[in-house]
Every structure is written in C-alpha cells, then in structure tokens.
Design a protein that fits this description.
Elements lengths: L3 H11 L37 H13 L3 E5 L2 H15 L4 E5 L4 H10 L2 E5 L13 H4 L4 E5 L17 E4 L11 H4 L13 E5 L1 H4 L7 E6 L7 H8 L6 H16 L3 H18 L11 E5 L7 H10 L6 E2 L3 E5 L6 H12 L23 H4 L4 E5 L30 H9 L4 E5 L4
Parallel strand pairs: 2-3, 2-4, 4-5, 5-6
Antiparallel strand pairs: 1-7, 6-7, 8-10, 9-10, 11-12
Helix pairs in contact: 1-9, 2-9, 3-4, 3-8, 10-12
Length: about 425
C-alpha cells in the first residue's frame, strides 16, 4: 500500500525550498507544513479526488472495509462532533445515548441543541445498555460506545434508526483474528448495519496523538462529512498527524499479523497473571484490568506501586487499574508489565467501592444549562443544585452528572469516589 502524504512530505523536504509560509518554525520540523500547493486540504477533499489526503483516506477505507473514511487530527472528539452535526442536518432532534458516553458527546449535543435520552446499563461505567424498543422510544438516532474503559462491550440489535458508534478504544479490532480471539469484540464496520463510527487511531495503533478516523458504512450518507468536520476542526490540521495515519495504513497492510502478535502477547500475560493469582476482569484483547481491591489495594495505590516499578497505567479508580496495550506491544513489554505486577505484594482483600448507576432528574435542557450563570461550590454543598458543567475526570472523561441535572446524594457520592472536590452549579435555579 502506498503512502501519498508521507511521499509528498519527503519530496517537499528534499527540494530545500525557501519556506515563506506557515508554520513559523521555518522548516525546523521538515514534515510539519501547511496546505501548500500539492499538499491537498483536509476539509476540502472529495472522496474521488486526486489529492494526497484523499488518496490516503481511500487506502484507510480499503483497510477498514468502509464506504468512506475521513481523517481527523483532533481525535474521536471531532468525529463525534461531525457525526452529530450530520444527524442534525438530517432532522435529528433527540439522540438515545449510552449514559456513560465520552464528554465530547455532551458538548457536541449542547452546541447543536440536541436532546439526549439516556440508555442505562446495569453497572456503572459500562457500555452494555438497554436497547429495547421502550428505551429507544422517541429517539431519532442512537449513540453507543463499543468498548468501555473497563474493557466491556455491547451488541446493538438491528434498527432502522441512524447509528453512531464511539469506537475510540477499538480501532485495532478490525485486524484481530476472530478465530483466535473470539468474535465478542467486533469493529463497528463488522456489525453488518449502516452506521457512522469513530476510531481513535492513536489509542491502540501506532499513530500520533489526535489521529482518528470517521468511518461510514452500509450506504450511510457522507456527502457533507468534510463540511461538518470543518465546523469544529482547526483550519490548520497537523500534517505530522496526517502522515502518521498515512504510514499506519502501509504498516497494517504490509504486516497483517501485527495486531494479532500484540494480542497474543497480552493473552499470554493474562494467563501468567492468573497463575500468580493476580485478579483481572474479562476485557478486550489489548487491555488488562486489575481488580485492585481483591489484591488488597485501592486502584490509586496499586497504580502508584506500578509507577514505582517503572510502569505507567492508563487509568485507575478506587477499584481498578487499567493497562492499555497497543498494536506496537511486544512480548518484552508484557514481560516488563508482569515483572512490575509480581513485585507488588498481595495483601488481604479490601472493601470494593460501589459506584452507583446515577439517574438524576433534569431541571433544564442540557444546551441551556451549560451557558447559564454559574458558580463553583464545594461538592459537599452541591446537593440540590442544578449542575452547570460537564464534570468528567479524565480518564475516563465520562460525566457522572450532566449539565441541567439536579445533583443528588447519589451523584455527589459518585463524584466523591472520583476525588472531585468542587463543581459548577447554576446560580438562579435550585
């Protein structure tokens, strides 16, 4: 597979041209350019055009099996914003969405003045939600998360509603051998239904931070995709990120077993952890989730010990520690992780913190609440007030209580478990 973006950047660098254009470092980072002649323009590319970005995006679409794939230099956030804008342009007013969705859904819905009907899971922070007819009643579209932070997933039944899938953590799933690792975890392009999906390539593939994909499958209308991306994205996208997406296409094409080798290494690590009686949750093939409380620690303390042993984790909370691996993971990486984990002494199990499934009552529409006068108050004094901000500790970047909702005792307790000390509330409504 060719690399049109990388090839152009190399060719331009070798000309030694006097760079009287942005960016202002004057070529100190040679491949960091702007939309000069021949470089194409990210938000102006047509699916069938001859520009280098369009060619590279077609390579990505071929790899993922989509009708069209668009690049994002602003992560899955930009993809979600554009997807919701496309729904809005089709007349969508209300989206049925997983309650534990990334905050980018909430901010995009607020800006686009969309209503959200929440779909609740049985367990806090889980992607597996109720897609029953009753739960979807009144919705014009569905927004779902394919993999949650604890490595869980969900399946959506066939539906006539438009579907948007946040697959931020699962770009690699397209390349997983389902015969070896099972078909519980699928890439959205393998769902077999028309949909729009967003992948954060940078989370699990060898791509620079911010590199992401926006996929369209099953004949989903993508004519205005670039127009909607341009509404939210920078007019100066990073060619370094675009190049990394471009080169990733070739890597995945040339080394089709790259992802599976990484998955095999992680699978072996999981078996070894079981032999050492280190408790983990069932999770997707490139994630290890330690049940820290069963090992005698809260997640924050366990992650501190990992850090002292030379390993930085993706996320920790009161109960869990999440180790996120990638397509670039090697057997040696997993050996290092195993060594660091076995150096932590097992202790007597402690109490598991119970995060409630919070279902606050809404006092105001989300899109109104975010722009009303607000004030910061200590969390202990916030109960009874109407939330005014998207309070989402990162990671997992998933709000416990939404703008416009009344902060209940349950919601305050869940926020406290995430070490939230204060929150913005609306001053004129209580």
């Amino acid at each position: 597979m060719n690399t049109p973006i990388h090839d152009f950047l190399e060719k331009y660098t070798n000309t030694s041209a006097l760079r009287l254009h942005m960016p202002g470092h004057n070529g100190e980072i040679p491949h960091d350019i702007t939309e000069i002649e021949g470089a194409d323009s990210l938000f102006d590319t047509k699916p069938d055009s001859s520009g280098i970005i369009a060619k590279s995006e077609r390579n990505a679409a071929e790899l993922f099996g989509s009708d069209r794939t668009c690049y994002s230099c602003a992560g899955s956030t930009l993809g979600i914003q554009a997807a919701l804008a496309l729904l809005k342009a089709k007349g969508c007013k209300t989206i049925a969405a997983s309650r534990y969705s990334h905050k980018s859904l909430i901010s995009a819905a607020a800006l686009l003045r969309l209503n959200i009907k929440w779909l609740y899971p049985e367990e806090y922070l889980r992607a597996d939600v109720d897609f029953s007819k009753e739960a979807l009643e009144g919705a014009d579209a569905i927004f779902m998360t394919n993999i949650d932070y604890l490595g869980g997933t969900c399946r959506i039944p066939k539906t006539e509603l438009p579907v948007v899938v946040d697959n931020a953590h699962g770009a690699y799933l397209k390349f997983v051998d389902k015969n070896k690792f099972g078909d519980k975890y699928l890439h959205p392009t393998e769902f077999g239904i028309p949909l729009i999906a967003v992948d954060s390539a940078h989370k699990t593939l060898p791509v620079l931070t911010g590199g992401a994909y926006l996929h369209f499958t099953g004949g989903t209308d993508h004519i205005r995709a670039k127009e909607m991306m341009a509404m939210f994205g920078s007019s100066s996208p990073s060619y370094l990120i675009l190049e990394s997406l471009d080169k990733c296409n070739k890597l995945l094409s040339d080394r089709p077993d790259l992802v599976n080798h990484a998955c095999e290494s992680v699978a072996q690590l999981k078996k070894q952890l079981a032999s050492y009686e280190i408790p983990i949750l069932e999770s997707d093939p490139l994630r290890v989730v330690v049940k820290a409380w069963e090992y005698g620690y809260n997640g924050f303390n366990y992650s501190d010990k990992l850090r002292a042993n030379g390993v930085e984790c993706e996320m920790s909370d009161r109960n869990h520690v999440v180790l996120l691996f990638s397509a670039a993971t090697t057997h040696k990486d997993c050996e290092r992780a195993l060594t660091a984990m076995t150096l932590i002494q097992k202790k007597k199990p402690i109490f598991e913190a119970k995060y409630p499934v919070v279902k606050p009552k809404a006092a105001l529409p989300l899109y109104d609440a975010m722009f009303m006068p607000q004030k910061k108050v200590p969390l202990a004094k916030a109960v009874g007030y109407v939330c005014g901000e998207i309070k989402a500790p990162c990671p997992p970047c998933i709000p416990v209580v939404m703008p416009g909702e009344i902060i209940s005792d349950e919601a305050a307790e869940a926020l406290r478990l995430y070490n939230v000390k204060e929150i913005s509330v609306i001053t004129k409504v209580r």
